[in-house]
Amino acid sequence: MTIEQLHQLFLEFPQVCTDTRKISPNCIFFALKGDNFNGNSYAAEALKNGASYAVVDEGEFAVNAKTLLVKDVLTTLQNLAQFHRNYCKAKVIGLTGSNGKTTTKELITAVLSKKYKTIATKGNLNNHIGVPLTLLSITPNTELAIVEMGANHPKEIEFLCQLAMPDYGYITNFGKAHLEGFGSEEGVIKAKSELYDHLTNHGKSIFFNADDPIQKNKLGSVVEKYGYSQEDNQFFRIKLISADPFVKIAVGDTNILTQLVGRYNFTNCCAAILIGHYFKVDLDKIKEGIENYAPQNNRSQIINKNSHHIILDAYNANPTSMRAALESFHQLKANYKIAFLGDMFELGKTAEKEHQEISDLVTIMNFDQVYLIGENFFKTKGKLNKCKSFDQLKETLKNSTLEHATILIKGSRGMALERILDIL
């Protein structure tokens, strides 16, 4: 079966599923393989549960006309997504960066959806499987698609750009994320810049932070670029008024009070404001979209529990985002501050150095209490409270009386530090 023929089936049954636990009626099931599963073995179950077709790549599972045999299921999914993206008329905005991708994507969506029919990456489905699924969610009515692209090794963004063929793009920042795969901070910059390289090579438009020297220098000779800045009148002016705790922004005479904490969320908002302005969304609608956006899923969430005021930022962490969160927390006005910091993953040979630097930084900040959790933080030098595991932290806090505290919880997803809420 050719991609063109498969696409005709997809137009008739425009729902794709890769998990038999989430089968929707009349969808097409793609039997993907993983380290611990073989989707081919679930094809019959998918059809039984309501799928119209199942795409498989092992002959023994192609038992009837509703099982479509291909050479490789993943490649077929990607090729179908690429074909569908080119078939549809929607403009695609590509988004990547070390920190803030998902929050920025949601803010951009909140703004653009005030004027346009939009779709966007769900959650953080931003890899070689998630991007195709996002592209396949584009409908004939979609005007703008915001596609988040993640990467943990070189050439991954380049590949995702070949699938999504973005018309526009934005990089949130370049930070110390996934150093194990990129090798160095320079490797991060080179890999994330694959989005800007693609856009430049194809004569497309770039949005950027003109106050970021890396982005400004890299895009010096690029013609189709649109930036925002706090000070430079060459670019769209957006000013930070305050972030104590919520980010407040000025665009001309209009003030925007967000539900986002931390100065690091200012640039995430700026991207949405700039892109909304570029697409001629009225400023009052931009303001409405941003002010109504409330973070969820452990991303800079404000939670009031018992007598505590908690900033829950436990979705992910790397040295750059950890430092930004701590600096923002340090600037907050509060009587009693406690920081719970969990290990940062995927740092490779730099893990010891990066964890020690964070430990040294938080020591200087002199919060009332600090708890470092995880094997990497446990190895650091210093006199802070250190727990090798979450269970050890739980035991440590068993006899503690914590009241009326302002608390920061920050760590990598694998640490699942949101569990701290249950023991406070």
How are the SSEs ordered, and which strands pair?
Blueprint: H1 3-12, E1 16-17, E2 28-30, H2 43-48, E3 53-56, E4 67-69, H3 73-87, E5 91-96, H4 101-112, E6 118-120, H5 130-135, E7 144-148, H6 156-164, E8 168-171, H7 179-182, H8 185-192, H9 194-201, E9 205-209, H10 213-218, E10 225-229, E11 236-237, E12 239-243, E13 246-251, E14 254-261, H11 264-278, H12 283-291, E15 301-305, E16 308-313, H13 319-331, E17 337-342, H14 351-365, E18 369-373, H15 375-378, E19 385-387, H16 390-397, E20 406-410
Parallel strand pairs: 1-2, 2-3, 3-4, 5-7, 5-8, 6-7, 8-9, 9-10, 10-11, 16-20, 17-18, 17-20, 18-19
Antiparallel strand pairs: 12-13, 13-14, 15-16
Attribute tags:
3 domains; 35% helix; ligase; Udp-n-acetylmuramoylalanyl-d-glutamate--2,6- Diaminopimelate Ligase, Chain: A, domain 1; UDP-N-acetylmuramoyl-L-alanine:D-glutamate ligase; 6-stranded mixed β-sheet; 424 residues; cytoplasm; single chain; alpha/beta; globular
Describe the structure.
This protein has 424 residues and is of the alpha/beta class. The chain folds into three domains: 3-70, 3-Layer(aba) Sandwich (Udp-n-acetylmuramoylalanyl-d-glutamate--2,6- Diaminopimelate Ligase, Chain: A, domain 1), CATH 3.40.1390; 88-291, Mur-like, catalytic domain (UDP-N-acetylmuramoyl-L-alanine:D-glutamate ligase, 3-Layer(aba) Sandwich), CATH 3.40.1190; 301-422, Protein-Tyrosine Phosphatase, Chain A. Helix content is 35%, strand content 21%. The protein is built from 16 helices and 20 strands. The chain has helices spanning 3-12, 43-48, 73-87, 101-112, 130-135, 156-164, 179-182, 185-192, 194-201, 213-218, 264-278, 283-291, 319-331, 351-365, 375-378, 390-397; strands at residues 16-17, 28-30, 53-56, 67-69, 91-96, 118-120, 144-148, 168-171, 205-209, 225-229, 236-237, 239-243, 246-251, 254-261, 301-305, 308-313, 337-342, 369-373, 385-387, 406-410. It has a seven-stranded parallel β-sheet, with helices on both faces. Strands 15-16-20-17-18-19 form a six-stranded mixed β-sheet, sandwiched between helices. The chain has a four-stranded parallel β-sheet with strand order 1-2-3-4. α13 packs parallel to α14 (351-365). The longest helix has 15 residues, at 73-87. It is globular, with a radius of gyration of 23 Å. The termini are far apart. The relative contact order is 0.09. The mean pLDDT is 93.
